[in-house]
Amino acid sequence: MSRYSEDEIIARVFAPIAGAAALGLKDDAALLAPEGAPLVVTTDTVVAGVHFFADDAPALIAKKALRVNLSDLAAKGAEPIGFLLGLALPGDWTNDWLDAFAAGLAEDARAYRAPLIGGDTGATPGPLTISITALGRAPRFVPRTGARPGDAIFVSGPIGDAALGLAVRRDPALAARLPAEARDHLIGRYLLPKPRLDLAPWLAANASAAMDISDGLAGDLAKLCRASGVSAMVDLPAVPLSAAAREAIAIEPALFETAMTGGDDYEILIAAGPDAAPPAPAGRIGEIAAGKAPPIFLDAQGKPAFFKKLSFQHF
Amino acid sequence: MSRYSEDEIIARVFAPIAGAAALGLKDDAALLAPEGAPLVVTTDTVVAGVHFFADDAPALIAKKALRVNLSDLAAKGAEPIGFLLGLALPGDWTNDWLDAFAAGLAEDARAYRAPLIGGDTGATPGPLTISITALGRAPRFVPRTGARPGDAIFVSGPIGDAALGLAVRRDPALAARLPAEARDHLIGRYLLPKPRLDLAPWLAANASAAMDISDGLAGDLAKLCRASGVSAMVDLPAVPLSAAAREAIAIEPALFETAMTGGDDYEILIAAGPDAAPPAPAGRIGEIAAGKAPPIFLDAQGKPAFFKKLSFQHF
């Protein structure tokens, strides 16, 4: 049975029926009221067994569900207005679980000034499913489509920690070979991404294009390039790695590919004019190029690296 | 194991952590930008096996998922701006299914001028789960909290059809006793609610309080009264019933309670000043009263009717 890929669902099924504010569904968020301070709206659904483990701490599940949405706002240059929560609870939920979930959500709502402004709670015969819609305002909406040849490419922080954290959780043998500190760092970055809302003002003022990295740096850069009608050249040794990621890759070199393609980073991928100084601690990893070729990733020897798959795919 | 009820989850778990725009989570939608033409945002999640049958026609599933959200906008006096779609697809989806789903969604998006403006598609190991967030603008936001003693209570159309349609689908013996036309009417009203967006301007201009009836007239009126700090008196013989509903109730009198408490009506429950003429075809069913007693439902003999449960509950 031949089926659409995840990208094809968006491009072939939903983009043709989407409205103008959807920007062709090429972006992470919808743009409303393009005059004045644009209102930015985004939605992401997370499912137990797909995006998190059902027995993860409920406060962490709540925070991750919210943060992946705030990360989209940040990438668009927006500060949060608030969010709506759609919660489908499986049969075995308890008061304690729900209290802890709500407490985690409230902590983050305060920390990121993103109040809960509505929602819907119901039952599901399936796994816990959390659908959050976040709204924000941006002085300027940073599109995915604005990258131009010659732009510098920045990433807002270390890449691959979360994908390696997931690998560590799935592979006890790998976990056993890592120092506890490195293991905890990687798992922590998988459990609890940090939305880069601190960079939103810089992005609104300086970025020609941006998106948050949720499905892997390699694949998400390819998406940004397709949306902008450009290509790119990335210097892989310039991609920032945490000390923990370097330790894991030293033990198992194949994990470098996992780090570049695995996803769940929630750092921001940025294209900005060649003269833009990157916002600390973002680092330059390459340059946007003319043409429609897929991005090229050069290794330490200057040779193109080939990844088996560029990004996480649900289907 | 003692657990929160569905209402307690909202009142005790989420309302305390919600922002001001959430209106204490006492409403169906969030109110943003109370100055000028308010932006109204609402979200509802529907799950196969809970809110619809997994083998229902995909176009009908899509339309119902959208319409239950548009119904919330209508009840707030808002006209649609657009909507976001969060789609969690089970393992057995096919291109044909998804094409038909999107076609149904597009038809309704055009018919109700509610463009798709964003979304998120992923996989679930569980049942099909559709989370829609709808945005609208209202000249005036119609709250759930504004009912005052002496207000007339209106409903926008026949009550109970959808709950009876569900009963007919679940009970082949009942279905066999109903004329085909009545059966088809009731099932049709379950499958495809009609959001009363035509009433939104009237509501914004005239209603003191309103909500759409999704969980049963009796329970939803009790919610509206609690939110407004009032009581109510309903004349049950005045509640409009379709010819098909009357046929079903004639065959099985217990179905009258199903009609009053079963939900999925997506008609609008309205409180308006005593001098307001109801918008056609809405009919007057009772009056808001002072006090905090639960609403009283009087039968044809003027005696209070007691319902076993007032409304549909997920938990």
Order of helices and strands of chain A: HEEHEHEEEHHHHEHEHHEEE
What's the story with the biggest beta sheet of chain A? 6 strands, mixed
Output the radius of gyration of chain A.
19 Å
Q: Quickly count the helices of chain A.
A: 10
Rounded to the nearest angstrom, the distance between the terminal CA atoms of chain A is 13 Å
Shape of chain A: globular
CATH class of the largest domain in chain A: Alpha Beta
CATH architecture of the largest domain in chain A: Alpha-Beta Complex
Rounded mean pLDDT of chain A is 90
Assembly state of the chains shown: homodimer
Most extensive chain contact? A-B, 67 and 67 residues
CATH topology of the largest domain in chain A: Phosphoribosyl-aminoimidazole Synthetase, Chain A, domain 2
- Range of strand content of chain A: 15-25%
Fold blueprint:
The structure is a homodimer of 315-residue chains.
Chain A: H1 6-14, E1 30-32, E2 39-47, H2 58-75, E3 79-89, H3 95-111, E4 116-123, E5 129-137, E6 152-155, H4 161-170, H5 172-177, H6 180-191, H7 200-206, E7 207-212, H8 217-228, E8 231-235, H9 243-251, H10 255-261, E9 268-272, E10 283-289, E11 296-298
Helix pairs in contact in A: 2-3, 4-6, 4-10, 6-9
Walkthrough of the structure:
The structure is a homodimer of 315-residue chains. With 315 residues, chain A is an alpha+beta fold. Chain A has 2 domains: 6-137, PurM-like, N-terminal domain (60s Ribosomal Protein L30, Chain: A, 2-Layer Sandwich); 152-298, Alpha-Beta Complex (Phosphoribosyl-aminoimidazole Synthetase, Chain A, domain 2). Helix content of chain A is 34%, strand content 22%. The first copy, chain A, is built from 10 helices and 11 strands. In chain A, helix 2 runs parallel beside helix 3, helix 4 packs across helix 6 and helix 4 (161-170) crosses helix 10. Chain A is globular. Chain A starts with 5 loop residues before the first helix and ends in a 17-residue tail after the last strand. Chains A and B meet through helix 1, strand 2, strand 3, helix 3 and strand 4 of A and helix 1, strand 2, strand 3, helix 3 and strand 4 of B.
